[in-house]
UniProtKB/TrEMBL annotation:
Matching InterPro entries: HAD-like_hydrolase_domain, HAD-like_sf, HAD-SF_hydro_IA, HAD-SF_hydro_IA_REG-2-like, HAD-SF_hydro_IA_REG-2-like_cap, HAD_sf
CDD domains in alphabetical order: HAD_dREG-2_like (cd16415)
CC annotations in GO: nucleus
PANTHER family, per database record: HALOACID DEHALOGENASE-LIKE HYDROLASE DOMAIN-CONTAINING PROTEIN 3, PTHR46191
Family: Belongs to the HAD-like hydrolase superfamily.
Gene3D superfamilies linked: HAD superfamily/HAD-like, Haloacid dehalogenase-like hydrolase
Pfam families linked: Hydrolase
Organism the protein comes from: Fregetta grallaria (White-bellied storm-petrel)
Name used for this protein in its record: Haloacid dehalogenase-like hydrolase domain-containing protein 3
Gene designation per UniProt: Hdhd3
Amino acid sequence: AMLRLRLLTWDVKETLLRLRRPVGESYAAEAQAQGLRLQPGALGRSFREAYGAQSRLFPNYGRGRGLSSQQWWVDVVKQTFRLSGVHEDGVLTLMAENLYRDFCSAHNWEVLPGASETLSRCCQRGFRMGVVSNFDNRLENVLSQCNLRHHFEFVLTSEEVGFAKPDRRIFEKALHLGGVPPEQAAHVGDDYTRDYRAARAVGMHSFLLRAAGQGEEPEVSPEHILPTLSHLLALIEK
């Protein structure tokens, strides 16, 4: 039977948008612009270490801990370069500010294949649409720059709401904004825990975007798996 859905909520990173190149390459290009030659692979490893440590100390971009998300990210960028041997404060600050700005634009993000078409078709079918993302407050701007913002009635970020997926409260806020009960809503995302399982825990339907050959979680029924976004409407309407 066709699902009686009225609201679709969407994850963003690796669902609708992805980085155009690895983080280490973007950081190495910025370093090179300042006359520093650093290896992208090493910078990528430094970034993962700095990002992980900052996330443990100050979850959800420092929300509720007196940090702005901009300061949170500036600290991550500076620590990434420090771990790679750069210690001059002036150049660290300059690179951090440049990278914070660059990651706010289509310069560093690209739309995943099938995303624009699928979102357009969902809007044409009359679904209400919203974003539910563990992202900082640059997301509205990123979506606008990538020409996706107009598809959505609302954009909920973990920074704005104060709760990050898989916390049920970010999904409850989305249901409230969409004005529908959970059984009339579905969430689309690529992460088993934060997207698929978390949405189902509040009573929503959920679809897991997963390319062939990615890890098989036993609890995901085959009719909930999207090999590509283009499969979504067929699954909803079958």
